[in-house]
Amino acid sequence: MGAMSESVSVRCPACRREHFYEAPSYPCVCGAPVAPALDGHGTATAVAHRAWDEEWVTVRCADCGRDSQWPYPELGCGCGTVLRVPVATTSAVPSPEAAAPVRRRAFQPVAIRTARDAVTAAALYLRWLGYRNIRRADQRPPAGIGLAAAGLLAQVEPTVRPASRRDVECLWLTAMTESASCVYFSLAGYSPDARTRADALGVPLFVLDLTGTPQAVNAHADELDAAGA
Questions:
Q1: Which among 106, 137, 215, 221 is least buried, having the fewest CB atoms inside 10 angstroms?
Q2: Is the pLDDT reported for residue 4 higher than 60?
Q3: Contacts of residue 111, Cβ cutoff 8 Å, sequence gap at least 6
Q4: CB of 20 within 8 A of CB of 9?
Q5: From residue 207, how far is each of 88, 97, 159, 162 by CA, in Å?
Q6: Which structural domain, as residue segments, surrounds residue 178?
Q7: Residue 2, in any domain of the structure
Q8: 33 closest CA partner among 5, 75, 69
Q9: Are 22 and 119 within one domain?
Q10: Are residues 20 and 78 in the same domain?
C-alpha cells in the first residue's frame, strides 16, 4: 500500500493562526498513492518569492521504490500568507532488485485553480507518460512557462490567451536546437493557424481543462498519449 498522509498542526508566522493540514497524495507511475511525510515539529515559513527548485520535493514510493518529484506542500492562511509546510526527512526505501515492467494506470489529475496548478498538471501528465527529471526549462520561452525533461521541451500557457502560431514555432525551433521533441499545453486552446502549423511541424497540442486533465487537440497529441515517452 502506498504512503498515507497524516494531519499536522501548522501555525502561520504572520498572524499566529493555527491550521490543521494534510498533504495531498499523488499517483506514482505504478498506481500507488504517495504523499510527502510532514514534519509535525517543524516550523512553517511564509513564501516570499518563488524559486523553481523550492517548488518540488522528492518522494519515494513505498510500493515500487521509485523516486519522483511532487509539488512542495503549501497552505494558504486566511490572512493572505502562503505557508510552506515543513517536510520530514525520511529514510530511503530500497528499490526492488528486479522490477517488472509497469503498465500505466489511468491518469489522475489535480484541479487547476492557479497558474502554478496548470504547470503542476502538465508536469504530472508528462511524468505519467514516462518522462523523468522534469524541471524548469533553461531557456525562458517568449510566452508561458517552459518545462524540460530528457529529450523533451514542453511549454505551458496558463493564461486565458490562446496560443499563437508564433508560440508554436518558437517552441519547435528551440526544441530543434536542443535535438529534443516538444509538446504544448494551453488552458485557452490555440488559434486556427497555430493548430495548422503544429500539424505541419509535428508538435503535439493539448488543452488543459479545469480538472487538470490534458485533452489531445491534434493527431500528434493522440499518438503521444497512447505511446508515452
A1: 106
A2: no
A3: 117, 210, 211, 212
A4: yes
A5: 36, 39, 12, 10
A6: 115-227
A7: no
A8: 5
A9: no
A10: yes
Residue 128 belongs to what H/E stretch?
Answer: helix 115-129
Question: What's the N-to-C CA distance of the chain in angstroms?
Answer: 26
Specify burial of residue 69 (Cβ count, 10 A radius: 0-12, 13-18, 19+): middle
Measuring CA to CA, which residue among 225, 222, 218, 210 is closest to residue 160?
Answer: 210
Residue type, 7: S
63 & 133 share domain = no
Distance of alpha carbon 215 from alpha carbon 207, whole angstroms: 5
pLDDT tens by residue, 121-162: 999 999 999 998 898 888 788 888 999 998 999 999 999 899
Q: Which residues contact 152 (CB under 8 A, 6 or more apart)?
A: 126, 131, 180, 181, 182, 183, 229
List, in order, residues 6 or more apart from 45 with CB less than 8 Å away.
13, 83, 84, 86
| pTM for the model | 0.61
With a cut of 60, say whether residue 96 has pLDDT above it.
Answer: no
